[in-house]
Specification:
Helix content: under 10%
Radius of gyration: 13 Å
Structural class: mainly beta
Number of strands: 11
Shape: globular
Largest sheet: 7 strands, mixed
């Protein structure tokens, strides 16, 4: 089971750091990703990181503002979000990737709400 946390309400231009914790599995065995879903829209890819942390990928909309990282020893993954924009408002989910970099298994777990005010 995956659980995302760290969301909240922030003003445009602000920062948040999301965390993803896993129970019952070792995250270091998997490529991982962050996805987000806005009201009335489908779930979109945000960022991906390979099992070792050596390779990352980002959507065009967040590249240069967000940074994905992982700490396998802690069984954790993170998403540092800087320069937040109102359009970043969404529920953010972490997921195990089935195919690199944007295809996730459908077990989404609990997401975390990020709200960016203008």
């Amino acid at each position: 089971q995956l659980q995302a946390s760290g969301g909240g309400l922030v003003q445009a231009g602000g920062s948040l750091r999301l965390s993803c914790a896993a129970s019952g599995r070792t995250l270091g065995d998997y490529n991982m990703g962050w996805f987000r879903q806005s009201p009335g829209k489908g779930r979109d890819f945000v960022a991906a990181i390979n099992w070792s942390g050596a390779t990352t990928d980002y959507s065009d909309s967040v590249r240069g503002r967000f940074t994905i990282s992982r700490a396998n020893a802690k069984n954790m993954m993170y998403l540092q979000m800087n320069g937040l924009k109102p359009e970043d408002t969404a529920i953010y989910y972490c997921a195990v990737l089935r195919n690199w970099p944007r295809d996730a298994f459908g077990s989404w777990g609990q997401g975390t709400q990020v709200t960016v005010s203008s």
